[in-house]
Design goal:
Number of strands: 0
Radius of gyration: 18 Å
Strand content: under 5%
Number of helices: 6
Order of helices and strands: HHHHHH
Helix content: over 70%
Largest sheet: none
Distance between the termini: 16 Å
């Protein structure tokens, strides 16, 4: 028997990943302006045509990967096995915490992104906590 909380969390994360992935693929510059501001978005585009092409290609592939992750989360939402749900949630917590640590130790050192990392770390921790709440809820449900 599956959990409704797992289904809802997966759908929420799926919608976020699908939306961000599509925006990264098709509206990269607008996405960067929204996330970092006009001046930094201009600096993130690159200075030479070759750099700009590499950066656009990289952003497009990153968006495609994020879109695929969103689609995977959508499919996983329909799995009813509690053991798998618990395993998957633990993996997602580990992934989000690792991303927050990466932002703290690496991204804060980048000159153009230095002011954005605290906000992104808070987002990573919030996403990890959504999975932790599911784990606590499922653990309490199991032993009550």
């Amino acid at each position: 028997m599956g959990s409704t909380g797992f289904f809802l969390i997966c759908l929420l994360h799926s919608v976020v990943a699908l939306t961000c992935g599509a925006l990264m693929m098709f509206y990269t510059n607008d996405f960067n302006v929204f996330g970092h501001g006009t001046e930094i978005a201009r600096k993130l585009q690159g200075s030479t045509p070759h750099d700009q092409l590499l950066i656009r290609t990289s952003d497009s592939f990153s968006g495609l990967l994020l879109f695929a992750i969103g689609f995977l989360l959508f499919m996983v939402a329909f799995i009813k096995d509690r053991g798998f749900q618990s395993f998957f949630a633990k993996g997602c917590v580990l992934l989000h915490v690792t991303m927050a640590v990466w932002r703290i130790y690496f991204e804060r050192k980048l000159e153009y992104l230095a002011r954005d990392w605290p906000r992104q770390v808070v987002g990573d921790i919030a996403l990890a906590l959504s999975w932790v709440f599911f784990l606590v809820y499922s653990w309490r449900e199991k032993y009550d």
